[in-house]
Model the fold of this input.
Amino acid sequence: MKKTISLALALTLVFSGTSLLPAGFDAVDTAVTASAAFEYEGFVCEDLVSGEVRITGNKGMSGAVTVPSKIDGKKVKEIASGAFKDNGEITSLYVEEGVVILPQAFSGCVGLESVVIGEGCDVWGVAFENCTSLKSVAVMKDTDVSMGAFDGCDSLESFFCYKDSPADSFCSTLDIDPTYFDDGDISFSGVYDVFEFKAANGWSLLDETGKQIVVYITKYIGGDTHLDVVVPETIMGFPVYEISKDAFYVNTVSGQESIVSVKLPETVKVIDAAAFCRCVNLKSINLENVLSFGMSAFSETSLEKAELNKGLESINAGLFSGTSLTKIALPQNITSIPSDAFSNTKLSEIVIPEKVQWIGSYAFYNTMITDVTIPEAVTQIDEKAFGYGVTDLYDDLGAYIGWEEKKYDDMVIRGYEGTAAEKYAKDNGFEFIPLVKPKFGDVDGDGDTSVQDVLLIQQAIAGWDVGISESVLDVNGDGLVSVDDAILIQQYIAGWDVAGKA
Done:
């Protein structure tokens, strides 16, 4: 980040009223360098002799404000007295770990509604006096709060902290009882960096017991300042677990959708309905750790590829509808492909997993798929799942005048006789090519079960690319390709009664 150097040199005397300091605190180091003041993303700062930074003011900051723990690689030691005094435009505040908040730093911020103070911070004197709209305060571990810090904050309704922490002792001066993070019974909102978030206890795939405090990203507020979004792994020390419904929906700034890429931490396991819907410039996002998707989570984006978690058991309607997706590998454990899941994409081929039982209406509508193999387990294929799309219409002068639906005359459905695949092909007038049920253990498809099939499985276990899908190599159907599959074939070759196959 660049910093703008002002012309005037700063030499600041620090507030030294010890009557406003919490017990046990020493007066702040008053020595500063004779360097110029500088600006950093709206903060007015100065360098200290210690090599740290002091925030002394702000340039008309408003809305959600995050005070960073470091600026240009230097630790932020403190927020000076009066740095944000009487700023009525700030609505929420997050102070990162280890920053001291000096008396009157935020006094008179009448628009401030929520404050989150990070771990190892200290709040001195009347730091937040007369913040008359302040409703919620959350204080992390090892952060001390002075008596009078929230004097005149008559709207304060909630105070979150850890039991028996320094902040817990402060609560005795308030007219409200604290809510303890330790008890897990919490739910409050705040702002961190370019995200609005909610911290709450609830069902979590991160904890074997299914219960823990996690963070939900509820809204992206970065506008066009962050085209490549990085979601943090933790906020306030709690794991970021979910991208909530509509969090990035129609991410528009001055009519132009902005975000291009998103990097998710391993902790994000849930992406809820329409979370990124209509972010038309979004081209990449890592999804390999996500275990649950809501409806239309990525519809009408520019995603070109998506790598899904191999353990994913279900996908939702409209998940990738209207994207630029050209290729995707569906996890082997999913049992259905719901309506519009991949409609209006650029897919030209798809492998339907062996466990899929239902393919919803318009699931692959208006794609480039003209040849598909349907597993025997599929018992239902709904309206226009395959073989239909749209074509644009133009007048004699080449002007666009609309569109009409078209049926793919070259559509081929491959499947087993007497199954939903044959019925769908015949009902829609598509060519049906019957498949011959493979002999048990014949993984190479040569019509015979032999040592060669055992060898292919052994090679696949060793990491070789044998060109055969895992669903075929997984002879015993346990979801894994292992020595058990090789042994099963050897037993079959030897004449054993392998589940009635011999």
Remarks:
- The chain is about 10% helix and 30% strand.
- Helices lie at 166-170, 420-428, 451-461, 470-473, 483-493.
